[in-house]
Amino acid sequence: MIGVARRAEVAVAVWRLSRPAIWLVSVLPLWTGHLLATRDLVPTTFHEVSRFGLAVFVMGPLAWAAASAINDVHDLETDRRNPRKATAPLMSGALTPEAVRLAAYLAAVAALAGAAVIGVDFAVLTAGVLLLAWAYSVPPLRLKTRPGADIASNVVAVAVLPLLAGWAVARPIPEFPWWFLPQSAAVLVALYVPSTLVDLDADLAAGDRTIATRLGRPGAYRLGWTAWLLAAAGTLGLAATGTVIPRSLLGLYVVIVPGLIVAYHVLIGRAATSAAMVRGIVMLSFLFLVPSGAFALVYTGVWYP
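User: That's the sequence. What structure does it adopt?
Assistant: Structure tokens below.
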């Protein structure tokens, strides 16, 4: 019975290690890329369902397990100073650093194997995500401690490569509508920068250099705010010209986009604690689903405003 209980504890710990709550961060751009390629809200044939389902499994659970595990191993000293991480598998003793490192590389191998089944382009993009995850966390590169490089690596790994990967499931990459990439990148910057403020005190205590420790709270907020404004302006510009975003959405976006700008200031700019910042990021992400959902419905012909 002890063996069974221990195996169950390890299984739960590995599940938590993979950060299920943030799989959507990669799955949403993956789905968006597939939607852009097919003009379908969801795959419509068994072949498409199986390919896209495997793509979701690769970019969601497997890629995030690899990225999160290798990050936790190399954040061990910082996390010991961070009360928010007290119940994490490494901190609680549920997993050893050696086990977590092994889990990272096994998940990476599984992700590459699954990606290869989908196709060469998808496999190359998946390898790019995994390499950036490794470079983000592992010395000597450890991009997360290099202000500017931490943002760039996240933009590429989360906002660009999964979006292209979703497209690659259905169509050749050269046919991708490239004007859509700056929008995805700007939104990711606007949401990533506040996440570095969540652990600002712990990173300062550990001597880690991040965009938040480099710029401070006011400077980091201004950077995120600027990216959010650029995303807002880009959205209206694309809708006004009918570039990727249907022009029929312009009237709706003229109403929604200013509301999102105000929401960013209220939820992120006024967040006084780490808990409030986390809530603000989550709430803002859900609010962002409103214009995203409207785009998806109109782009696929489900709704005609």
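The CA atoms of residues 42 and 54 lie 14 Å apart.
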